[in-house]
Amino acid sequence: MIADVASCLTVSFGLFFFLAGTVGLLRFPDVHSRLHALTKADNLGLGFIVIAAAFQAADVWTVFKLLAVWLFTVAAAATAAQLVARAALSACQTEEPNR
Amino acid sequence: MDSFFQGAALIVLLNVAASAIRIFIGPSRADRMMGAQLVGTGGVAILILLSLAGARPAVLDVALLLALLAAFAAVAFVKSVSPGGAGDPEEEA
Amino acid sequence: MNVSAAFDIVLCLLVLAVAGGAVLARDLFAGVALYIVFGLLLTVGWVRLEAVDVALVEAAIGAGLTSVILLGALPHSPAQSSFPLKIRPLALVSCLAVGAGLCWIVIGLAEPTSGLRPAVEAQLAHSGASNAVTAVLLNFRGYDTLLEVAVLLLALVGVWSSSRDDRWGGRPGPRQHVRPGGVLANFGRLIPPFGIVIGIYLVWVGTTAPGGAFQAATVLAAVWLLAMMAAITDPPRLASGALRWLVAAGPLLFILAGLFGLMEGAFLTYQPGTAKMMIVTVELALTVSIAATLALLVLGPARHGS
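The joint structure predicted for all components is written out below.
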């Protein structure tokens, strides 16, 4: 019962951060600020959802698996953020101006 | 509880739909790539929520796979915009 | 309307919208990005249809291999597609007719039957695998799988044959280079070990739960490609004997296991006692071969001599 309440709360937090990420992706003015919204907010959202799932987990292996899911995503986001930001930087200087 | 998790999955799906708009309007390739990246993270969240909703642990393996391969598209993207399709954007700095 | 139905309806609409966007997008890159999203949404769709085995393949192919192929093809393509195409009335009418016919057939289908499920479940205990999908793929319908693997092998031979004569047997793909110690190089070191572990896990779990050789192989192929993109390892020389044995090992062992069955009764039949051992051995060999084949298909023909 307590686990269910905790899950509800953390899922709600997670959804809030997903929403924030999406709003940021759609409303921020240029590539590099959109990158902030994307790589930080939605990974935080996923983290909360992972915590919610951990409250419901049947055994400790499931918790490890969930933790692995989150760590992979965070590593991927950090890498993607750095590389895409660099790629966008050279693109700004050479060809297309940002709107 | 199941329908709560399903509802949460639906909300994340709507977020995914909204970020697909960014892929469509761009304007730069990096923007479109970031939209696809958000859809990837959202997909992982949806799969976790669905595995909770149906109590199906095997779905978690799908989420694990998506998470592992999450940055592939981004790596392939930075390769494709680098000179000759074989470089690394950090090299020029 | 309950939440589950609402989720499915939104998912279907979104799949249709993204598919339409991928086809109609003027900017080719937008089309590719939307196609990657399409693969992700299909993964969720397969999960909703309770086909977790298929969802695993779609996740690995959609997120891993397809993005590498399509984005790798982009630098050689024009930035804008030639849309809107001139729509030919006859083609439009025939497409609409075929579509309407399909809808009519689907709507007119009788109540869904259980298909072959009872027959599979009756024999599952003797098949050596408790995951019905693995039992069908490697035991009941072993022929299909063997032929699929043969098709993959033939496709690879076809791709290799398109190498230029003076490059024959050389290394495929462009020469990758990265900043030493940079983010890309480190990411390429970080992920492959986990990918190998998850690949082995998927083969092992495949006999009892969703997973199996194809799923594991796509993961292994993807992480191998990542290691090559991060310049951790060079693409292999296509003339290498070891590589060719690697690609052929799975199909060869599969045929050998089939011939072993010939002694017992018929080609590709396993005795209930040894079935699990046979299936796991064949699956392991298939995993390695399919992984190498898929990665080499993505890399394409040889580009550098020697």
